[in-house]
């Protein structure tokens, strides 16, 4: 390394984040050729503490590339070197390694621009000349009165983008004398940004300091209303395909909330009839951005047009029919928009407990009593979650010995907790430098679907990088035991196996069973768009095996019937023959739901009598673990790129096949799990429905039933022109978990003998 105008600075031990390194990546000189044509397509990575902090653009076919790219890096420990790695980009293949070097930050003079030339080396070929990289670097201390660079915690949703304008709230002095600043964005309530300006006191004095949630913290997270948008249709849209038609779909965005409609193929007048709910955080309203796209297989989708809905111009508690002409395009969209008051969503300390207040508890019980079954059908129930504490979390931030310091290894995390119910997301404050944090917070939600799953995720707050995942649990609301404080073992991202740590929760659910049953026969709430499905070899294989297992059930049933015809077992064939004669001679239509009813009752009898023949699905669990290991390999070695992931057209087709296999397999598994009493509430609901069908078919002639069904279908659009189409049977089955979901929602038992060192998965 050749440094210009440098001097060895005497670096104090310092507090974390006390230095800022401004790096300008200038150019490369005489880089090694890695392609057949005698050139390379170089790009550069900066790594600090084993984590990638910067990646440059790729310069194609050039051994003397010029980048002139700038990066601002926050330095925890100036004695830790900055590693620079150079790669040659290869389309469809693994990128070739060109060389690496490191920059000793202790050799830099503070507050002085320094030009640096780094000679690239390959540890396997130390004598080879691989070229050099030219940098300009400036290392400066971060003082109290300097302009503060915001240290952002990324949202847990990849698609959430942070707005640039923030409101800075009044400073809150901590007990240590440091000034804690809290920044929030009113248009993105999911984002809470914390940063500390040190007063040069000992950092260890506030390692376990925990901030209480202020009123502003609560206010910035809680929504003030619900915006319900029904996408009805499009009219005379612009033709984007060669056949004079389009395959249109619509994207909605309000702040960080995003939705995407289904694709309607080959039409300029699509009928969607889909509903989406947004949270409204600003009292003055907001603007919903709407864009219309034409789906193109194998290439970038075509833009058809855009429009905006200004919610501040719409009155509340009223449904507005809007015909929105598309800008930069042709045609219009027809929407129904309704603004309603906010649901009862709150954050509080343990001292403020709604269910412990006798008066409030009675009001909640009265609101969801059987007498109120027809009042506000969307308000199914009430959920209270106490997030108490976590223990033995994974250490996400590890500082150890290096060539400059002989300090002992020090492991820590800065954990915070995210509580999610469908699209409702709230989070706790961060407890700094603690593997056993105590939050002691209470969250309350309104339940719109009793078959929802409560997800509690623990993250480690990283200052200038995305939050590190520490663990997660998924708890179906119907499996919750009210008022019981339980220790839930944290799982990995795929919810297939344990990771390090447990979280203590106390959950209460109060709901109206009649409303919950009726809501089961309505469409499920759509989830925000989070990320596009990606092609995974393990996921494709898993879905294929799942569908194969479902098909094998039908094939085995056909073999069984065939064996009866072939008289492989004379007693069995004789019994089947007599049963066939009896059923055919006495058959009535009501016997079909009656047979299903008897099957449900038989399985229930087996479970109650202790003869449960349901087996834990280890096959699906093993496949999920294989898929997780594949994801881990992708995360750990980002330089490896699969060939299929590079070919967009092939990937899109494979993803479609992968999703179709998943849907078909899930459909068969949900039918099986209905009769297996996997979710007793749904199985009892099926018994009630089948009993009603049996009675109706027994007493009412089939022609009258078909007549009523046909009249209802033909007149539905006349009676309710903007009604959303749905199939009650499919909506019911959508609430039954598939085998994959059964594994994910399965509660793990604590295993004290399980060594944390063996849990290598999901280690940040």
TrEMBL record:
A single Gene Ontology CC term: endoplasmic reticulum membrane
Keywords (A to Z) from UniProt: Calcium, Cytoplasmic vesicle, Endoplasmic reticulum, Endosome, Membrane, Metal-binding, Repeat, Synapse, Transmembrane, Transmembrane helix
Residue spans crossing the bilayer: 574-605, 681-709
Signal peptide residue numbers: none
Keyword Calcium tagged: yes
Boundaries of every C2 domain copy: 1-118, 207-324, 358-490
PROSITE patterns registered for this protein in UniProt: C2
Single GO MF descriptor: calcium ion binding
Subcellular location field: Cytoplasmic vesicle, Secretory vesicle, Synaptic vesicle membrane; Endoplasmic reticulum membrane; Recycling endosome
Chief subcellular location: membrane
Membrane topology, record value: Multi-pass membrane protein
GO annotation, biological process: regulation of neurotransmitter secretion
Family the UniProt entry places it in: Belongs to the MCTP family.
Annotated PANTHER family: C2 DOMAIN-CONTAINING PROTEIN (PTHR45911), DYSFERLIN-RELATED (PTHR45911:SF3)
Name of this protein: Multiple C2 and transmembrane domain-containing protein 1
Originating organism: Fulmarus glacialis (Northern fulmar)
